[in-house]
Specification:
The protein is an alpha+beta fold. 36% of the residues lie in helices and 15% in strands. Strands 2-1-5-3-4 form a five-stranded mixed beta sheet, with helices on one face. It is globular and about 50 Å long. The N and C termini lie far apart (54 Å). The chain binds FE2/S2 (inorganic) cluster (FES) (2 copies). The site of one FE2/S2 (inorganic) cluster has 12 residues, from loops.
């Protein structure tokens, strides 16, 4: 069995890891079980719910569908990597302000899908936000509040970008 393990290196939330993984292990399993980062949730386990979304090289992916060996060399961000030095990301602040978090099971998937969008277009409108987040299911029905939160965070991020330029 040990000889089936493959060595990979990847960066998760800015930290580089060298790991040995079996070929069938998903990125989700690696994140939760090998790295102990439990903010990324497992819902369906086969690409239907979006609870497991993380950023891989800046793109939102269902981590249950990515083999860990295919993440070799990748730069991965999980929900634990959003806050910086104890300061919440504007999206996290806005989700709290707008009441976009109920049970929280979908929240990391929502946050990371929204981050992928706002990194490209901080002033995305409702339709684009709906489209981008359509792969993340919320059984608590927070969708309207999530959209408001994403727009609020986007305005803040656009303002910060303008100040810097
Ligand atoms: S756990 Fe990955 S999409 Fe549902
Ligand atoms: S907040 Fe409960 S599933 Fe979305």
């Amino acid at each position: 069995m040990a000889d089936l393990l493959q060595s990979i290196t990847l960066t998760v939330n800015g930290e580089r890891h060298a790991l040995c993984v079996a070929p069938h292990v998903s990125l989700l399993e690696l994140i939760r079980e090998q790295l102990g980062l439990l903010g990324t949730k497992e819902g369906c386990g086969h690409g239907d719910c979006g609870a497991c979304v993380v950023l891989m090289n800046g793109k939102a992916v269902n981590s249950c569908l990515v083999l860990a060996v295919d993440a070799d060399g990748a730069d991965v961000t999980t929900v634990e990597g959003l806050a910086r030095s104890g300061v919440l990301h504007p999206l996290q602040e806005a989700f709290l302000d707008e009441g976009a978090v109920q049970c929280g099971f979908c929240t990391s998937g929502m946050l990371l899908s929204a981050k992928a969008l706002l990194d490209r277009n901080p002033l995305a409108e409702d339709d684009e936000i709906r489209r981008e987040l359509s792969g993340v299911l919320c059984r608590c029905g927070t969708y309207p509040r999530v959209i408001e939160a994403v727009k609020k965070a986007g305005r803040q991020l656009a303002g910060q970008k303008e100040e810097r330029s």
